[in-house]
Design a protein that fits this description.
alpha/beta; TIM Barrel; eight-stranded parallel barrel; three-stranded antiparallel beta sheet; 14 helices; globular; binds 6-O-phosphono-beta-D-galactopyranose
């Protein structure tokens, strides 16, 4: 089996799960710095302080009091402080990924490294230099950087002062960030993602808003739509060769049965994804937006110019994550932003209850391509599992190899049989990093093991897993080792 020669392969990360160095290089604080560690049994918490000094903690996706602001409790562990130290080890990590044969690397910009509060008139040079060095290191090894401008985060000060993305003022702050990035890296970076998992953003940690009600969330998301479109319009002036996408959490749900009501429940559930992508990829609110918003008692404040901006700033490609599949029926209780967690009885589940379903990736590629006819970039996929390291510092992760093998075969079919233009594939967390949903280190995705536990203890040394050698062979032989 051969893949197109120009298909990009690599790994993906997000700054607050990977980078660390939270108090170095004049980095400011981010909202997600206030999210503690956790586990499947003990959910992560967001710690905050109100104006009168009362301290509290809330589930990561919960609401916090109106006058609250993130607070770092010295007794708690916050994984984003040191993450797995890409900040100091980026050369080593990029070299490892390059020697595996990677041709791309997705990473995200820490907003508060460039603008510590988000409001400064002038950017922080140390922050600019850090990503300049990361990008140069990629290029040195022939790796095409894929930059996420904003991955589920916002500077603390913008949350505090403006209630985050609920305010239009944040659009301008974001555009100031974009301008600095385009000026400094525009000649080196072709592929950009304006935002991560736009359809799963909510609450303080992601949006900087203190309330998770639909009115606040969907108004904030409208501002994100406008910000993304304006960023793309600006980039086309400054860096005409650039390609713009945004990322959507796209793991599919299937209808639980062929009962017509279940199939319609599935159509409606999928709108929890397409509502977001339709606006950004097609450039206008879809017909069902009216009922989608009315059903949630949301009235959007849309300014007259916004409609034109959305049209002009629609995206060049669709980027997505796809990890698993689930099912939907009229009985399903949808989780945050319309996700179904009902298990599909036909596929096995990971230790975190994620249904392992290689066909899901071909399904999504088809579903999305037929809707938008734009190139697709698979920017997150992979298996989060418990890895045991032996006395020789080796992890024999055959389960991960099996997962990748089976998913890659389906991607191949999507390209070859279905004719879908796939730009590239970046596996989530090629170097082990902190889990977003649970805050654990134990849930590992990487080709490379990082010696660190859930509370940040360990040398952080890197060790190659069996999947690293398998992937190296896969890339060298262009897929000949698939079985
Ligand atoms: C996506 C996020 C990532 C990432 C991934 C895996 O939702 O974009 O930041 O972490 O999921 O999820 P988890 O880390 O919870 O296993």
């Amino acid at each position: 089996m051969r893949f197109p020669e120009d298909l990009l392969w690599g790994s993906a990360s997000a700054d607050f799960q990977y980078e660390g160095g939270f108090n170095e290089g004049d980095r400011g604080l981010l909202t997600c710095d206030f999210v503690t560690d956790g586990s499947l049994r003990q959910p992560r918490q967001m710690t905050y302080k109100t104006k009168n000094g009362t301290k509290g903690a809330m589930a990561m996706r919960g609401s916090i009091p109106e006058d609250a602001v993130g607070y770092l409790d010295p007794e708690r562990y916050y994984p984003s402080r040191q993450a797995v130290d890409f900040y100091h080890r980026f050369k080593e990590d990029i070299e490892l990924l390059a020697k595996m044969g990677s041709t791309t690397m997705r990473f995200s910009i820490c907003w508060s490294r460039i603008f510590p509060t988000g409001k400064e008139p002038v950017a922080n040079q140390e922050g600019i230099d850090f990503y300049q060095a990361v990008i140069d290191e990629c290029l040195k090894w022939g790796i095409e950087p894929l930059v996420t401008i904003c991955h589920d985060e916002i500077p603390l000060v913008l949350a505090d002062k403006y209630n985050g993305w609920s305010s239009r003022k944040v659009i301008d702050c974001y555009l100031r960030l974009c301008k600095v990035l385009f000026e400094n890296y525009g000649d080196k970076v072709k592929y950009w993602l304006t935002f991560n998992e736009v359809n799963a953003l909510s609450g303080y940690s992601h949006l900087g808003v203190r309330s998770v009600d639909d009115q606040t969330t969907l108004q904030a998301i409208h501002h994100i739509f406008v910000a993304s479109a304006k960023a793309k319009i600006m980039a086309k002036e400054m860096i005409p060769e650039s390609q713009f996408g945004a990322m959507y959490a796209s793991s599919p749900s299937y209808p639980a049965t062929c009962k017509p009501e279940d199939v319609m429940a599935w159509v409606e559930q999928r709108r929890n994804l397409f509502y977001f992508a339709d606006v950004m990829v097609r450039g206008y609110y879809p017909a069902y937006a009216k009922s989608f918003l009315e059903g949630r008692n949301v009235v959007l404040n849309i300014e007259p110019d916004d409609i034109e901006i959305l049209k002009e700033g629609c995206l060049d490609f669709y980027a997505f994550s796809c990890y698993r599949s689930s099912i939907v029926s009229t009985q399903t209780n949808l989780g945050h932003y319309g996700m179904s967690f009902d298990p599909n009885p036909y596929v096995k589940q990971s230790n975190w209850g994620w249904g392992i379903d290689p066909i899901s990736i071909r399904f999504v590629l088809n579903e999305v391509y037929e809707r938008y006819q734009k190139p697709l970039f698979i920017v997150e996929n992979g298996l989060g599992e418990i890895d045991e390291i032996d006395e020789n510092n080796f992890v024999d992760d055959q389960y991960r190899i099996e997962y990748l093998n089976d998913h890659f075969k389906e991607i191949k079919k999507a390209v070859e049989i279905d004719g879908i233009p796939v730009i590239g594939y970046t596996m989530w967390g090629g170097i082990d990093l902190v889990s977003l949903s649970t805050g654990e280190m134990k849930k590992r995705y990487g080709f490379v093991y990082v010696d660190m536990d859930d509370l940040g203890n360990g040398s952080k040394n890197r060790y190659l897993k069996a999947s690293y050698y398998w992937m190296r062979e896969f890339l060298k032989s262009n897929g000949k080792n698939l079985v």
